[in-house]
Amino acid sequence: MRKESEAKFNRRKFLAGVAVAGAGSTVPPGAAIAAPSQAPLDAPPRRPSALPPNAHVAAVETGTPPALAPTKAAAGSDFMVDVIKTLDIPYLPSNPASSFRGLHESLINYGKNTKPEFLTCMHEESAAGMCHGYFKIAGKPLMTLCHGTVGLQHAAMAIYNAWCDRVPMIVVGGNDLDAAKRPPGVPTFHSAQDINAMVRDFTKWDDTPVSLQHFAQSFVRAYKIAMTPPYGPVAISLDAGLQQEPIHENGERLYIPRHVATAPPQGDANAVREAARLLANAQNPVIVVDRAARTENGVRLLVQLAEALPAPVVDQGGRMNFPNTHYLRSAPNVIGRADVIIGLELSDYWGTVNAWIDNGGDDGSGTRESRIKPDTKLISISAVDLNTKSNYQDFQRFQTIDVHMAGDAEATLPALIEAVNAALSGDRKAALEKRGEALKKARAEARERTRAAAAVAWDASPISTARLVMETYAAIKDLDWSLVSSSGNVSNWPQRLWPMEKHYHWLGRSGGYGVGYGAPASVGAALANRDAGRFSVSIQSDGDLMYAPGVLWTAARHHIPLLAIMHNNRGYHQEVMHVQRLSNRRNRVASLGKDMGPIGTSIENPDIDYAKLASSMGWWSAGPIKDPSELGPTIKRAVEVVKSGQPALVDVWTQPR
Amino acid sequence: MYRLRLHVGLAALAGLLLLGQGVALAASAEKGKTAFIKNGCWQCHGSVGQGGAAGAKLAPDPLPVEAFTTFVRTTNRAMPPYSEAILSNDDLADIHAYLASIPKAPDPKSIPLLSSP
Questions:
Q1: CA A353, CA A336: separation in Å to the nearest integer?
Q2: Interface predicted TM-score of the whole assembly (ipTM), two decimals
Q3: Which residue range forms the structural domain that includes residue A153?
C-alpha cells in the first residue's frame, strides 16, 4: 500500500514543477532521473492517472531550482539585494531610516550602490514622486524605501497620485515587526502591525514576507503585478529583523524566481468586432483618449485608427496620446456632434459626456448637462475596469456604456484597427475622405484662433502664461526636448502651441491631483531623460514647489539637469474661485485681507524668492522676472546651464492662468 | 408660478439694462482697472481681460455694456452671478469702461514666437 502510494504522482508538486520549469530550468530534456519508487516485478503495468513528468519537469521538481543565483550573501539583506538586482532597477530614491538600515547597508556596500543607486531624498513624498516621473519617461519602475509608519505616511499622497495615474512603483516599508525584539522608544513609535494597511486602498497588491525566500517571491511578484496593465504601485512591508539576521541555510538553498512579464489584457474579440462595426458605420465617430498610449507605439496605433476612419481625436492629456500637429486632433466640442464615441483609457467617462456646472443648482450640488445626443453610442476600452478597489473614488461617476471592454487599450488597438479596416468597404472609404478634408479645414482655422488668443496680453506684466510658454519653447525648440511637468495651470498653452509628436513630449498630469507632484516628478523624469540624452523642461508652479522643495537639492546632488520655469502667480489659484463662488452665493463680499485673492488663497506678503531658494540648494537661478522683454534672454542663459549638466530655475511673475 | 417668475425675471432684466446704460455714461476706465483687480476679475480673466482656462476672454472688444451687465448679474454658469451688494453698479460700469479701453491685440503674425510653430 505504501509503495503504491509512493508510485502515484503528487499533483500539487507536479503542477508546481511545471510552473517552476517555465521559469527557466536549464536541465536538458531526456536527462536520466532517479525512479521515484520500486513497483513489484509481477504487477501489471500501471496506467498513470496523469502523464509522467519528462526529465526536465522531474528535475525541476526534485532538484535545486537552476534559476538560483549563486549568492555570497552573508546577511538576509544581502540576499534581498541579490533579488532586487535581478530586476534591473536603476535607481532607488529614498529618505534614510533605521527600519531599513539592514537593506540600506547591503545596497551601498554589498551591492556597490549600483542598480539600484541610492538617491538621497529629503521627503518620502519627493522620493515616490520621483519614481512616478521616472516611469513615465523610462517605462521602467523604480523602488523606494520608506520608514515604517511615518515614512509611509509621508509618501502616501505621492503613492495615491501614482495609483490614479496608473504608474507602477515598488514601495518597500521598513518595519520592526517583532515586539519582543524591536528597539524600544522611537522605533516602536514607528512600527505597526500592518503598515501596508495605510496604502492598501491605493496599491495593486502588498505583502509582508516572513522569510528570505518569501521576500524573493514577494519582490518578483510585486514587480510583475505592478508592471501588468493597469499599472500601479505595490507595497512590501519589510521586517527589520529579517533584514539584519544572518542567512540560515537550514539545508535549503535560497533561490530567486525569474521574472517573466505578463501579457497585457486585451478586449474581447467579439466586442472588438462590434466596436469596429459601430465606428465604421458612424456618420460622426469621435475618439477620446486619456491614458491610451502607454508607449510610442501606442501613439502610432492611435494615428492608424484615427486615419482609418477618419475620426477626430480628443486628447484629454493623461499622456501624449496623439500628435497635436495631426489634422485629426480636435477640440472637445466635437463630442457634441458624435453619433459614436470610443473612449480609450478614460479616467472619467461620465465627465467626458456630461458637464457639471458648479452653480449652486440642485440644492447646492450643481447642475448636470449632457454633452452628447441622446442616441449616441458609447464604446470603452480600459484596463482600469480590472481594478477592484472601492474605497477611494478615482473611478468617478458611473456611466452606462454600450460596448464595454475590460482590457488594455494599447494592446487591443491592433485588433481594433484590423476589424475597422475589414468593416469599411471601398465605397465607404471613398465617401469618408470628404470627412477628412472638412476636419483638415477646421483644424487650420482653430490653429489661427489659438495664435490670436495667445497674442492678447503679449506684453502684459505680470507676464502672460502664453508668453511664458512661448519664450520657453523658443529656447528649447532645437533640442530633443521633453516637457516633464506642467504643474501650474497655464491654460494648456504648451499643448495648444508646442508641436507635440513624441510620447515623451508630454507626460500627463499627476493623476490624483494631489498638489506637490510637479517638482519631484519633474526631477524623476529628468533623471530618465538625462540617461536618454534628452533635455528636460518643466513649468513649475509656486504652490506645488513649496510642498517639498528639498527635491531641488536632490536634483543638484545627483547631477540631474532640469530647466524649471516658475509659473509664479503667487497664489493657490485653483481655490480662489471656490471661495469667491460661495461668497457670491451667500451674497457676501469675499474678504481679501491684504492679499490679491480671498484670505487663505494667496502666497504673498512676503513674496517667496524662488531664485534664492533654488540657489541655496545648488541650482543656477534667476528672477523674479517681471518684464516680459527680459524673459527670453534669461531663459536662453538657463538653457545653456542645463545643457552643461546642471539644473536651473527661472522665477517668473505670471498672470494667474 | 412659472409665468410669474418669467415676468419678474424680465422686469429685472429690463431694469438692469437701463441701469447699465445710465451708469455707463459716467464710467471711468481708470477706476475700472482698479475695480477689475480689487474684485478679483483678473484672477480668471487676466489683467487685460485676455481670458484663459479659468475664464472667458473679455477684451479687446468686450460685449456691449447692456449684455455685459446682464451677464454679470444673472449668469448661472461656472462664473457665479455678482449681485449689487457684492459689485456695485458704478464698479461694474467702470470695469466695462476699462475693458473697452484695452487696445486691440497685435496681429500674431507680427510676433515671431507665434508665427513659426
A1: 8
A2: 0.81
A3: 76-244
